[in-house]
Amino acid sequence: MFNSELTQKLTKLKTPFYFYDLDLLDKTILSLKESLEPNYSIYYAIKANNNSKIIKLIKDHDLGIDAVSGEEINKSLNNSIKPNKIVFAGVGKTKDEIIFAIKKKIYLINCESFDEISLIDKISHELNVRTKIAIRLNPNIDSRSHKYIKTGMFDSKFGIQIGHLAQILEKIKKLKHIDLKGYHFHLGSQIDDLGVFSKLCNVSNEINTYLKNKNFNITDINLGGGLGINYEQPDLNLIPDFKSYFQIFKKNLIYFDNQKIHFELGRSIVGQSGSLFSSILYLKKSFNKHFIIIDAGMTELIRPALYNAQHHIENLSSNHKEIKYDIVGPLCESSDTFAKDYYLNKSKIGDLIVIRSSGAYGEVMSSNYNLRKKVKAYYSNELF
Questions:
Q1: Which residues pair with 126 in a beta bridge?
Q2: Containing structural domain, residue 260
Q3: Considering the chain, what is the average pLDDT of its residues?
Q4: Are 281 and 316 in a shared domain?
């Protein structure tokens, strides 16, 4: 992915920094759109990466935005995303965020409790409007991913238990400023087993029929996202297999003519387009370990510390034989570790290191812990 010409340019930049291959991102979105069925719509999960240049590409391809905070809505609007292309999710929306979303006339609010629905009705009454909502349901389906990114199990804070749907529908009927237009699922993230989505289709089909029999005019079905990417060997799957993913829904999902199907993909769109670059500060041997200490840390990429996530790491400055290293950051935390017992070309101080597949939940989750400054981002279309 990083040819000698590009590597030479990147070597001249002060590390650490993020680098985005916008050409790859463009190709990824095109592949995504080519895989869609006519009634399918994509709402990019902006929580994966809210970089403005990425949002611009999302807008240029006419994708929507799935936001989980008022500020994500605001940033989308400030980047010329139309209000009717934004949906608002999240388990803990504040009153001010709800007011903001309603006043900006975003397309749909995905609700996660009756208390939230009741608050939206009250606010809508005060603003003299009717607000379109969807109900997020918890289907109790195991996404078979890391426990911190499972969101559709019985013990998850997200969504409404399906067994409570009937009583909530009865309460909604009494509300005067709410229009129930959809239902919403999201099982989690980094899902590799596509069979999980077949189970989701079966649950959705039952809910859709049930709501139709209850005389609710459901126009929007949101099936979430969660499609994983190849972290260990990114060059084998730079663009995810969207065709197989959507084929699951084409084959198993039942919906009516007036209904639109939403997907809120994030990681699978942007994940492979971003990389974190760092330089080697020091090497040392301690007991039986060989350590590489780099100038990027968990403040720049927290996924390994938070999720025990594994990223493919390369030394772009070395073509020597591989040695087993622990690759660690500079922060005063033992969890500030990118990889243990990792085979990397024999390295020296100053070598340029790249941590691949960092486009999702990398830069967007960065912090200034230890008072570290936010790192710069560079883009493929600006280096040539």
A1: none
A2: 23-270
A3: 94
A4: yes
Q: How far apart are CA 263 and CA 326, in angstroms?
A: 38
The string of DSSP letters for 259-308 reads: -EEEE---HHHHGGGEEEEEEEEEEEEETTEEEEEES--TTT--HHHHH-
Using the structure block, give the residue that is written with the tokens 């980094």: 190
| 150: pLDDT strictly greater than 80 | no
> Domain for residue 12, yes or no?
no
The tokens describing 203, both together, are 């649950």
Rounded CA-CA distance 56/366 in Å is 21
Secondary-structure percent of the chain, ordered helix, strand, coil, rounded to 5: 35, 25, 40
Q: Are 266 and 376 found together in one domain?
A: no
Q: Is position 303 within any domain?
A: yes
Residue 149 within any structural domain of the chain: yes
Euclidean distance between CA atoms 107 and 177, whole angstroms = 15
Same domain assignment for residues 335 and 215:
no
> What CATH number should be reported for the domain holding residue 183?
3.20.20.10
pLDDT tens for 287-314 read: 999 999 999 999 999 999 999 999 999 9
| pLDDT per position as a tens digit, 2-40 | 888 889 899 999 999 999 999 999 999 999 999 999 999
pLDDT, residue 294, reads 98
Q: Which of 48-52, 196-200, 288-292, 295-299 has the lowest mean pLDDT?
A: 196-200
Residue 223 has pLDDT above 70, yes or no: yes
Q: Under a CB-based contact definition with an 8 Å cutoff, are residues 17 and 355 in contact?
A: no
Q: Is 350 exposed, middle or buried (0-12, 13-18, 19+ CB in 10 A)?
A: exposed
* pLDDT interval class at 239 (50, 70, 90): very high
Total structural domains within the chain:
2
**In degrees, to the nearest 5, what angle opens at C-alpha 268 toward C-alphas 144 and 314?**
95
Q: Say if residues 297 and 363 touch (Cβ distance below 8 Å).
A: no
- CB burial of residue 4 (10 Å; 0-12, 13-18, 19+): exposed
Together in a domain, 185 and 287: no
